[in-house]
UniProtKB/TrEMBL annotation:
Membrane topology: Multi-pass membrane protein
GO molecular function, one term: transmembrane transporter activity
Pfam families with a match to the protein in the record: BPD_transp_2
Protein source organism: Phytoactinopolyspora mesophila
Protein name in the entry: ABC transporter permease
Residues passing through the membrane, by range: 29-51, 63-81, 88-107, 113-132, 139-159, 179-201, 230-254, 260-279, 286-305, 311-328
InterPro entries the record matches: ABC_transp_permease
Record's GO cellular component terms: plasma membrane
Entry keywords, A to Z: Cell membrane, Membrane, Transmembrane, Transmembrane helix
Subcellular location: Cell membrane
Amino acid sequence: MNTPLATESAPNERLVVTRQTRLTAKLTTHVQTVAVGGVLLVLLLVFAFSADQFLTVNNILNMLRQIAPTMIVAVAMTFVITSGGIDLSVGSTVALSGSLLAIAISAGWDPTLALAAVVLLGAVIGFVNGWFSAYHGIPAFIVTLAMLSILRGTALRATEGYSTPISRDTWVVTLGQGRLLGIPLPAIIALVVAVAGWFVFAKTPFGRYVVGLGSNGESLRRSGVAVRRVGLSVFVLTSTAAAMAGVLVATRLASGSANAGVMFELEVITAVVLGGTSLFGGRGSIVGTVLGALVLGVIANGLVLMHVSPFYIQILQGAILLLAIFLNQKIFSRFATRA
C-alpha cells in the first residue's frame, strides 16, 4: 500500500530540490546586487531616524531628480565596463553639452535643434573614443583621459569660465525642472533608460556580445562577431548618455557651466562597480548599477540633511569605490565563478 505514495513523492522531492538549486544559483550569481540592496535598505532606515526631512515627499522627489543624471550615465557605463573598457570623459561631456546647449539657445537657435545637436555631439565624442580604443587598440583609459582634458578645455574656452543662463521660457527647461503626474521628469527619463538598458543587456544578442567581449574577446571574434563594432558601440552609448545628462543638469539649473560634472566620472564608476559590475570586464548588472546609484544619492542627501560638510561626500565616495573594488575582487567574484 505504501508503494504508490513513494512513487508520487519522488517527483515532488526532485521538483523541490530543483527549485532550491535554481534559487541558490540565482542568489549566488546576484549576491552583490542583493548585498547592495541590503545596504540601501539599511541607509534608508538610518537616515529616516536621523534626519527629520529625509522621508518627506519633497525631499524624496528632489533626491530622485538629483540622482537621475548619474543613473542615466551609469547604466550606459555598465556596458563599457562589462566590455572591459572604461570612460573617464563623461564628466567633461556633461560640462560641454550643457554649456553648448545654453550658448546655442542664447544665440537664437531653436531649442529643439540645439538639443538634437548636443546629443549628436555626444554620439560623435563616443565614436571618437571607440574608434581609437576598439579599432586601434589604444587603452580606453588613455583615450578617455585625453578626451576628458580636451572636452573640459573646450567647454572653458567656449564659456570663458562664465555660466550661460537658459531662458526659463524655452520648453527645453521642462526636461530638468518639469514634472509628470507629480514625478520629476529627469527621474522618469532615468527609469526609462534603466529599463531599456536592462532589456538590451539581459535579453538581446548585443548584451551577450558585450559580456563576451569583456570575458573572452578573442573567442567572440572567432565565432564571427564584429567585436570592434561592439566595442565602439558601447562608447557611443556612454557619451550620448553623458550628453543627455548634461542637458538635464543644465536645464535643471537653467544655466550651462564649464564647471559642471567635476568628479562626475568617479560617481558614475563607483555606482557601477558598487552594483556588482567587474572593473575587469565580463560581468555586469544593470539592476545592481541602479541600486548603486541610489545608494550614492541617498548617502549624499542624508549627509547634507544631517549638516555634514559636503567635502566628506567625495571622501566617502572614494572610500566606497575602493571598498567595492576590494570586495568585488576578493569575495564576490568567487560566488560568480561558482555559479
